[in-house]
Design a protein that fits this description.
heterodimer; A: 332 residues; mainly alpha; ABC transporter involved in vitamin B12 uptake, BtuC; two-stranded antiparallel ribbon; globular; disordered C terminus; B: Rossmann fold; Rossmann fold; six-stranded mixed β-sheet; membrane (chain B); sugar transport (chain B); ABC_transporter-like_CS (chain B); nucleotide-binding (chain B)
Chain lengths: 332, 493
């Protein structure tokens, strides 16, 4: 595990222990479930963002892709078909929007940031113009059922119950799939190669455009899935849900050690970054700190994370050259 | 000669308004080392990139095993057994050496799954075959230039290639590693592999080539067996002008403070007890194997990685150097080893690069007329071949980029100039120009320290040569001792 990931784990342990010392109740399944539930959607978005970052580019369209896919699916999709079909439709829309992103990046030869900034605005604009902007609070029946299907439910020490939705399994499976893609397929290694040096990658027979298309397709599909999961969990489809939250995900991913410059990143890091931020938020409540401080805390963590990345990249191996005894000096 | 494995037929290549190659036809036969020589910018690297599929020729064809391609893709080329060791290595800095070595073959072979252990095994075999040692499990970006070069070579050897082209593979290597490379080349020859070899080092060309083709301004001038040429005639064919040499004038440094005096310099665990003195107008060589500490000593003197102990004096004044800025302020200039990454802003204009370290200013505002004058003077003094001053440095050939780097330092009128491999990757014509500039500067009182592997160069240029071994200066050679055999013996002992 990379140093940065270890540090994240360490920070999380410290945070949990610290808060638990004051509030012993904090140390329990309830907190675990709360943090996981709060992280589910974020983890998926983060994995998609991480993938694009590794290939060399900052994607800011993922939330627009996610909410457009989910909102269109809920509004126009089947109302009583199985949840699997609904999920598949949203994922497919996300995949299509991802391909559009790829087309813009490749055809316009522009940076991913600029391209997705543009497509993001277009996606949101198109949603409000053609699909609508009202909140849909009655979801299709299968989604309502799924939203209340829990894997585990535990009773709180003091009050109520806390549940972990079964969708956590979907999130886990996606994370594992993306991880396996990145580490065990040639296409996955090509993503790293392109992010490291696109010119060198193309000389090594890697098709750079094809790799980019693949990356955006996967990232789009994952975002579409994240969108519909978010809608399912919250029980309503609100087109403004994610507005302006892009930087939260980017912050989580950078915290997780994914390099902004490309070529470096892990699923584990991205997931840990999201978990840490959710944990920080969850800790603020029992400590009685207003949640408005959450954003400041995330900002502080982010600066810490970047400082750490710089420190790590500055550290160099030094190979000793000097022999122990001084050799005899012969001056001519 | 038996049927060629790879052949370029009537290849021309234009970049915008520049004709890089004109109707070039070259054939590479099995078991033959074919050296392509010529000055920087003559089109050698472009020719290799056409053959490897990295560039699409404007006209002409590449014939591989009897099949003619108008436009070969990198993937087709790799699948057909064409391997190129690019001058810039073309490695992915974020991947490990093992993966860099293994990945292209897997991609070209259309494989879908990747196994780290299989990649590791393949890479290990390639490195053993080459007979060198490389750290395989850390990102290539953390390796030294030499290790990166060796990685690029190992990558070409990892697959069953039929044709291997090497674009200046030895510039970053020490003699020992060059020997290992040449031994590998010998084995490849016996196995019937066709080899293209680009180098600026005459001894290498004559010791390794079965055939030599000279390019000038993008066209083939002549082609023949090496015994049809002499060093001088080959240099003349490449440059189109007669051979040259310069006179070494003894420095007149009696009574003048040394340009640079270093006493007891040390930094554990890299080097210790380094004493050296460079008189005004003196050119001193620092010779040593790669990893001997020669680069570390230079980097300490110029503040890149400051020393922990010892003193440094410039023109007799003690000057503490804790950062590069201290060295620059004291009049110490440093031209680094890896010209492509360390010394220049590759995507910035040539002119801006020249004045980057020394901008003439008045009351905090840039003096643009003085800046333009400086740019023009450096370009004419160093005879830099360029399109416009506003073109990026990336558009220049290797030797001209090196001259820009040199010019950048001379602009500041340093008292001491430290050059790490000043003519690495530079052709005979430019090499002469660069050494000529250094010679002229030293006559004006500049102290020069040259770190180099090129023994003939050190001998022809330097008044004295210091030998570094295991982080210490172990020998000083001057006068009659300055011969190729004595220097090589002292360095490798």
């Amino acid at each position: 595990m990379a140093n940065q990931e270890l540090l994240l784990v360490g920070l999380m342990v410290l945070l949990i222990l610290g808060v638990s010392l004051k509030f012993p109740d904090f140390f329990g399944l309830q907190t675990l479930f709360n943090v996981l539930t709060a992280s589910m959607v974020g983890m998926l978005f983060a994995v998609g963002v991480m993938l694009v970052l590794v290939s060399g580019g900052i994607d800011v369209s993922f939330l627009a892709v996610g909410i457009l896919s989910a909102y269109a699916t809920v509004k126009y999709g089947p109302q009583d078909d199985s949840a699997v079909v609904v999920f598949a439709i949203s994922t497919a829309i996300g995949l299509g929007l991802g391909l559009l992103n790829a087309a813009v990046v490749i055809v316009a030869r522009t940076s991913v940031l600029i391209a997705t900034l543009a497509t993001s605005s277009i996606y949101l604009g198109a949603m409000f113009a053609f699909i609508g902007g009202e909140v849909i609070s009655t979801l299709p029946q299968p989604l309502q059922t799924l939203g209340t299907t829990h894997l585990i439910t535990v009773k709180g020490e003091v009050r109520g119950t806390t549940s972990l939705n079964v969708l956590i399994l979907v999130v886990l499976v996606v994370c594992v799939l993306v991880w396996a893609f990145l580490h065990f397929t040639i296409a996955g290694r090509s993503v790293f190669a392109v992010g490291g040096d696109a010119e060198a990658a193309s000389r090594a027979a890697i098709s750079v455009p094809r790799t980019r298309v693949l990356v955006f397709a996967i990232a789009g599909a994952v975002a579409g899935l994240a969108g519909i999961i978010s809608v399912t969990l919250s029980g309503r489809a609100d087109p403004t849900t994610f507005m302006g939250r892009e930087l939260d995900t980017l912050a989580a991913v950078v915290l997780g050690g994914v390099a902004i410059a490309g070529g470096k990143g892990t699923v584990r890091g991205a997931v840990l970054g999201v978990l840490l931020i959710s944990l920080v938020t969850a800790s603020l409540v029992p400590l009685g700190i207003p949640t408005i401080w959450q954003r400041a805390a995330v900002g502080a963590l982010l600066i810490g994370g970047i400082l750490l990345q710089t420190a790590i990249s500055r550290r160099q191996r030094i190979r000793p050259i000097l022999d122990a005894p001084a050799p005899e000096v012969t001056n001519a | 000669m038996s049927a060629p494995i790879v052949e370029a037929v009537g290849v021309s290549k234009r970049f915008g308004g520049v004709q890089a190659l004109t109707d070039v036809s070259v054939a590479f036969g099995p078991g033959e080392v074919h050296c392509i020589v010529g000055e920087n910018g003559c089109g050698k690297s472009t020719l290799l990139k056409v053959i490897s599929g990295a560039y699409r020729p404007t006209s002409g064809q590449v014939v591989v095993d009897g099949t003619a391609y108008d436009h070969l893709t990198p993937r087709q080329a790799l699948s057909a057994g064409i391997e190129v060791i690019y001058q810039d290595f073309s490695l992915m800095p974020n991947l490990t050496a093992a993966e860099n070595i293994a990945l292209p073959g897997s991609v070209a072979g259309g494989r879908r799954l990747y196994s780290r252990t299989a990649a590791r095994t393949l890479a290990e075999r390639a490195v053993v075959r080459l007979g060198v040692e490389i750290e395989l499990d850390i990102p290539v970006g953390e390796l030294t230039v030499a290790e990166r070069q060796l990685t690029a070579i190992a990558r070409a050897l990892a697959h069953e290639a039929k044709f291997i082209a090497m674009d200046e593979p030895t510039t970053a290597l020490t003699w020992k590693e060059v020997d290992a490379l040449f031994a590998a080349v010998g084995r490849l020859k016996e196995a019937g592999v066709a080899l293209a070899f680009i180098s600026h080092k005459m001894q290498e060309i004559f010791s390794i080539a079965e055939r030599v083709t000279v390019l000038r301004n993008g066209a083939v001038v002549t082609s023949g067996r090496p015994d049809e040429f002499t060093h001088a005639s080959l240099a003349e064919t490449m440059t189109g002008r007669g051979s040259q040499s310069f006179d070494r004038v003894a420095p007149r440094n009696k009574g003048r403070a040394p340009a640079l005096k270093v006493t007891g310099l040390g930094r554990a665990p890299l080097f210790a007890d380094v004493d050296l003195e460079i008189g005004q107008g003196e050119i001193v060589g620092l010779a040593g194997l790669l990893g001997s500490g020669r680069t570390e000593i230079a980097e300490a003197i110029c503040g890149v990685k400051p020393a922990q102990t010892g003193t440094i004096e410039v023109l007799g004044r003690p000057t503490p150097i804790n950062a590069l800025a201290d060295a620059v302020a004291a009049g110490i200039g440093y031209v680094p080893e890896d010209r492509l990454t360390q010394g220049l802003f590759l995507d910035q204009p040539i002119g801006d690069n020249i004045v980057a370290t020394h901008l003439p200013a008045r009351r905090g505002f840039l003096n643009s007329r003085a800046i333009e004058r400086r740019k023009a003077r450096v370009v004419s003094d160093l005879r830099i071949k360029l399109g416009k001053l506003t073109d990026p440095v990336r558009s220049l050939s290797g030797g001209n980029a090196q001259r820009v780097l040199l010019g950048k330092w001379l602009v500041g009128e340093p008292k001491v100039l430290i050059l790490n491999g000043p003519t690495v990757g530079v052709d005979v014509g430019s090499k002469f120009d660069i050494l000529g500039v250094l010679n002229a500067q030293s006559l004006q009182g500049l102290g020069v320290l040259i770190i180099s592997d090129d023994v003939p160069e050190l001998i022809s240029m330097c008044h004295r040569v210091l030998v570094v071994r295991s982080g210490r200066i172990v020998r000083e050679l001057s006068g009659d001792q300055l011969r190729e055999d004595t220097v090589v013996a002292a360095v490798t002992a």
